[in-house]
Amino acid sequence: GAAELGPYRHYMQKEIFEQPRAIGDTLEGVEGITPELFGDGAYRVFQEIDNILILACGTSYYSGCTAKYWLEDIARIPTQVEVASEYRYRTSVPNPRTLVVTITQSGETADTLAALRHAQSLGMKHTLTVCNVATSAMVRECELAYITRAGVEIGVASTKAFTTQLAGLFLLTLALAQTRGLLDEEAEARHLKAMRHLPVALQAVLALEPQVISWAEDFARMDNALFLGRGLHYPIALEGALKLKEISYIHAEAYPAGELKHGPLALVTAAMPVVTVAPNDALLEKLKSNMQEVRARGGVLYVLADADTRITSSEGIHVIRMPENYGALSPLLHVAPLQMLAYHTALAKGTDVDKPRNLAKSVTVE
Ligand code: G6P
């Protein structure tokens, strides 16, 4: 009811603004990195496995796609991510040394549960879930678990569940890196410090809402949008496009920026805004040349640029500057303006933000 909404107009908006609290709660009590954060016996399991298979649906699938970059980069573990409804029905090559990781807000998504059971039936006994509901079927059926503390999520479009999943998956990455001798005390302390500062950093990003609202006024008049990202932020571009589709009904798709010239560039006109997630990472220079390609075709750019990039607003380039560059954890910050963009675009269009047509919060039947 209205009382629970407090100053917010919709649950989705409330949940976006709850993220600093949700991430803080999800990390509460984490004094140091240890496999036991994921349950008794996790150390032995982490030693026995040599690759990871992530299974999930929807927004949870995109948190898995983000984690793949961390797991391969920081923990050096070969990682596959697959949509649960695909994995459960295809012939795959099982490996008993796989850690099967499911990611699910509800813990009850039919395809994700079926994919877990399918993996188990193929002889993969090491399973771990990152889940927001401790009493769910998924938590009961997995060997190990990390319970996120997003709290109840009501908006059909997932927001705080996503960022808390990322927090849990980053901890998993660090714990696996540690088991492999790849995380010294200095690195552990540095990562923990960055994680503990996330709520404050995210608060500063949420304060960008007025700038996002001015973008949303433009988007509400569009029929299509393209989202670009590279590396760790490609899944964030995918999630931004998904949010916009789900609640504003604007057709949106995401591409890794390097693929632009292999197709989507043909669609670029002034009528298709191009959102670019531009953290200051090793790929920034390449991303800038992708942006030039868009401008050269008359495309209009909406850029989420990091504090220390020199990208500035000019004709056809709208820049929102992120307060700080957050390194490996940057996806948790860059997703927030995209969530707000979808929210305010939907608001401007007058759609039913919390209950978009044809979609359900939890898909418990196939
Ligand atoms: C539905 C919801 C999404 C969610 C997906 C997976 O499609 O609308 O927000 O990401 O299910 O749900 P899960 O509970 O497994 O994370």
TL;DR?
With 366 residues, the chain is of the alpha/beta class. The chain is 45% helix and 15% strand.
List the topology elements:
Layout: H1 2-5, H2 11-17, H3 19-27, H4 42-48, E1 51-56, H5 58-73, E2 79-83, H6 84-87, E3 98-104, H7 110-121, E4 127-131, H8 137-141, E5 144-147, H9 160-179, H10 185-196, H11 198-206, H12 209-219, E6 224-229, H13 234-248, E7 251-256, E8 274-278, H14 284-296, E9 301-305, E10 317-321, H15 330-349
Parallel strand pairs: 1-2, 1-3, 3-4, 4-5, 6-7, 6-8, 8-9, 9-10
6-O-phosphono-alpha-D-glucopyranose binds next to helix 5.
Describe what this molecule looks like in 3D.
By secondary structure, the protein is an alpha/beta fold. The protein is 45% helix and 15% strand. It has helices at 2-5, 11-17, 19-27, 42-48, 58-73, 84-87, 110-121, 137-141, 160-179, 185-196, 198-206, 209-219, 234-248, 284-296, 330-349, and strands spanning 51-56, 79-83, 98-104, 127-131, 144-147, 224-229, 251-256, 274-278, 301-305, 317-321. A five-stranded parallel beta sheet has the order 2-1-3-4-5, sandwiched between helices. The mean pLDDT is 95. Bound molecules: 6-O-phosphono-alpha-D-glucopyranose. 6-O-phosphono-alpha-D-glucopyranose (G6P) binds at residues 57-60, 104-106, 109, 112, 156-158, 359, 361-363.
Task: Kindly list the characteristics that best describe this protein.
single chain, 10 strands, glutamine-fructose-6-phosphate transaminase (isomerizing) activity, binds 6-O-phosphono-alpha-D-glucopyranose, globular
